[in-house]
Amino acid sequence: RHTHAANQSSGINAEYGGVEDVLKREYGEYLVHAQDGYDVTLKFDLNQLPEDPEAKEAIALKASLLKRNCFASVFEKYFQIQEDREKGDGEEAAVPMAIVNYHEEEAMYISAETDRVTVIFSTVFKDPDDVVIGKVFLQEFKDARKAHQQAPQVLFSYGEKPRELQNVENVLSGENVGFVTFVLFPRHTHAANRENTINLIHQFRTYLHYHIKCSKAYLHQRMRSKTSTFLKVLNRAKPEEDKKFVKRG
């Protein structure tokens, strides 16, 4: 018996390099010719899986990281460019900014300099309430660096694209479009820490919108609870009906 894991396009262009190399490195013989309508297909022979439960779990975990490993190819390339330039080994010629259309209408922009790697997410807020909650949430991200000096610098803006994207074409705009910028320093991109950095940053968009939805659900729950409490108070406040007194002769 066989089982397949297929992944549709992650929006990573081949020009940013290394996707196939990373997937071959991570999946080896499990990587097969992609099925129609998909970019990547993994094939597992269930009869050939190792007997050791931990080894099986490791294979399942690696399969679940397929999308992450597709993103890793771009991050690894730009992290290495930054490291080489810091050491003076890299070319001084400008490296084009990587543009990853990772979600419908949304993109991620990655650029490398001598002392930093800049990652910018553009994201669309479908609901006006999401903009308000998103601002509060991102402000907490920004303020967190005051308490954690080792954290990346976080910047955000709405409607107006960041300075790094001024010369980039086809950048989404509008009052409901937000831009979140992460400035990653060498301590985040060097070999010892880059795997963890990739694990965290590639799913930021999902992380952000998940917590916005959770916040809205919590607010709705509190509103329903408070409304129920008010109704109970109003019901207790109803005046009692006047008693009719009958005059006896």
Description:
Strand 5 (106-112) and strand 6 form a beta hairpin. By secondary structure, the protein is α+β, with helices and mostly antiparallel strands. Helix 1 packs across helix 3 (66-87), helix 3 packs across helix 6 and helix 4 crosses helix 7. The strands form 2 sheets. Strands 4-5-6-8-7 form a 5-stranded antiparallel beta sheet. A 3-stranded antiparallel beta sheet has the order 1-3-2. The chain has helices at residues 19-27, 53-64, 66-87, 128-147, 186-189, 191-201, 204-236, and strands spanning 2-7, 31-32, 40-45, 98-103, 106-112, 117-124, 153-158, 177-184. It contains 7 helices and 8 strands; from the N terminus they run E-H-E-E-H-H-E-E-E-H-E-E-H-H-H. Helices cover 45% and strands 20% of the residues.
Secondary-structure topology with pairs:
Blueprint (H helix, E strand, L loop, with lengths): L1 E6 L11 H9 L3 E2 L7 E6 L7 H12 L1 H22 L10 E6 L2 E7 L4 E8 L3 H20 L5 E6 L18 E8 L1 H4 L1 H11 L2 H33 L13
Antiparallel strand pairs: 1-3, 2-3, 4-5, 5-6, 6-8, 7-8
Primary descriptors:
249 residues, five-stranded antiparallel beta sheet, alpha+beta
Would you summarize the structure shown here?
The chain has 249 residues and is an alpha+beta fold.
Q: Structural class of the helices, strands and pairings?
A: alpha+beta
Q: How much helix is in the residues?
A: 40-55%
Low-confidence stretches: none
Report the total helices: 7
Q: Please give the alpha-carbon distance between the first and last residues.
A: 99 Å
* Beta-strand fraction estimate: 15-25%
Averaging pLDDT over every residue, what do you get?
84
Strand order of the largest sheet: 4-5-6-8-7
Radius of gyration: 26 Å
Largest sheet at a glance? 5 strands, antiparallel
| Pattern of helices and strands | EHEEHHEEEHEEHHH
Overall strand count: 8
Shape annotation: extended
